[in-house]
Every structure is written in C-alpha cells, then in structure tokens.
Amino acid sequence: MKLLKIALLLTLTLLLNSCASSYKIIDPTHLNYNSKNENQGVTLEYKYNLLDKKYEKKENKNGIRLVAIKIKNNSERDLIFGKDILLTNSYGKQISIYENTRTVKMLKQKPASYLLYLLLTPMNLYTSTTNSRGMQETTSSTPIGLVVGPGLAAGNIITASSSNKRFETEVMKFNILGQTIKKGETSYGLIGIISDNFDYLKLKIE
C-alpha cells in the first residue's frame, strides 16, 4: 500500500508538471520587430521567441523556429515570397521554410497524451488515527482519484484542443509562403524555418 501511494504521488507530480498550455495570439501586424534587413528595395523585419511553454518545447525538440516577418516591397515589381524573395542566414545559406500546415503539425500539442491523468483514478485519500497502543490505524479512505483523474484529463484535453485551434487558425491566416507582394505593399507572415538556433536572416532577391 505504501509503495502504491508513493507511485501515485510521483505520477501526480509528473503529470501536474505536464499540464496543457494555452496559446497566446501573436498578431504579426502589431509586433515590435527587433531585427531588420534590406535588399534591392525590399525590407525584411522579423522576430523570434513568439511561443512559450509547450509550444516552445516543441520548437526546441523538432528543430524548428516560428518567426514573425514583415516585408515591405519598395522595388519596381511584384514579388512572390518563397520564389522571388528568399531568406538566407548570415553565411548566405538559404533558409528552408516549412509549409504552414506542416509547421502547425510539428508544433501543436497532443491532447490524447493527457489521458495519462486517468492513471490517477485509483488514488485514495486515507485517514488514520493513533490507537491506544500508539500505532497508526486507517479509519477511512476517500476515492478522490475518481474526480481528480477524469477531471484533470478532461480539463487538459479541452485546453490543449482549443489552444491548438487558435494556433492553427493564426498560423494559417498569416501564411505568406507563395504570396505575391505587390510593389508598394507590406505583407505580414508567420513562417516555420528549419533551425536549431536564432539565425540572423537576410533577404535574397531573385
């Protein structure tokens, strides 16, 4: 019984440190961009560190960075992002950009993983007293796991699912890959780039 209680306590501690994360809207149109690069009349502004908690952990685990970008086309022609407008790092190596659907798939939470909270269902709260011989005796037990387990599972699944929906909606809304940016216009986007670091981004105009 003692080993079971210890195991349940350790499980509870582990699971409580793995709670679902809410998603904070980024909105690239209202960000204060901290990096800038210009080339042939085209200006790029960008910002890293957009995600936190579970989404940030997914970035680090999968070698992908979500980047908010602002591109102003002051050239004399219309340009397509991903074809005429490319991104390179400081060494001139082209940056690979994921399709936004794949970016969402790689970074979103997995709601089904929170079913592990159901492991807490057998947990009981024991009440004990000391008898006349000075020994501890269990007087009652309350099956708190019947509420805690399913409650935590349901709450985290709902949080993860709704957060993923907001995340996907925003990333797809600001899908700039393949978009034509007309001369004189400014466009905003969210892109997933293949990188383990926070590379300095430069424009390459084809």
Quick synopsis:
By secondary structure, the chain is α+β, with helices and mostly antiparallel strands. The protein is 30% helix and 28% strand.
Tally of domains:
1
Share in β-strands: 25-35%
Spatial shape: elongated
Spell the H/E element sequence.
HEEHEEEEHEEHEEE
Helix content: 25-40%
**Radius of gyration based on Cα positions:** 25 Å
How would you characterize the largest beta sheet?
5 strands, antiparallel
Q: What is the number of E strands?
A: 11
Distance between the termini: 70 Å
> Unreliable runs, pLDDT <50, ≥5 residues?
none
Assembly form of the protein: single chain
Put simply, the count of helices is 4
Query: Widest sheet: strand order?
Result: 1-2-3-10-6
- What structural category arises from helix and sheet content? alpha+beta
- For the residues shown, what is the average pLDDT? 85
Protein model, in words:
Helix 3 packs antiparallel against helix 4. The chain is elongated, with a radius of gyration of 25 Å. It has one domain (2-13, 28-128, 135-205). The chain starts with a helix and ends with a strand. It is built from four helices and eleven strands, in the order αββαββββαββαβββ. The protein has helices at 2-16, 53-62, 100-107, 145-173; strands spanning 35-39, 42-47, 64-73, 79-80, 85-88, 97-98, 125-130, 136-142, 180-181, 186-194, 202-205. The strands form four sheets. The protein has a five-stranded antiparallel beta sheet with strand order 1-2-3-10-6. It has a two-stranded antiparallel sheet with strand order 4-9. A two-stranded antiparallel ribbon has the order 5-11. The chain is α+β, with helices and mostly antiparallel strands.
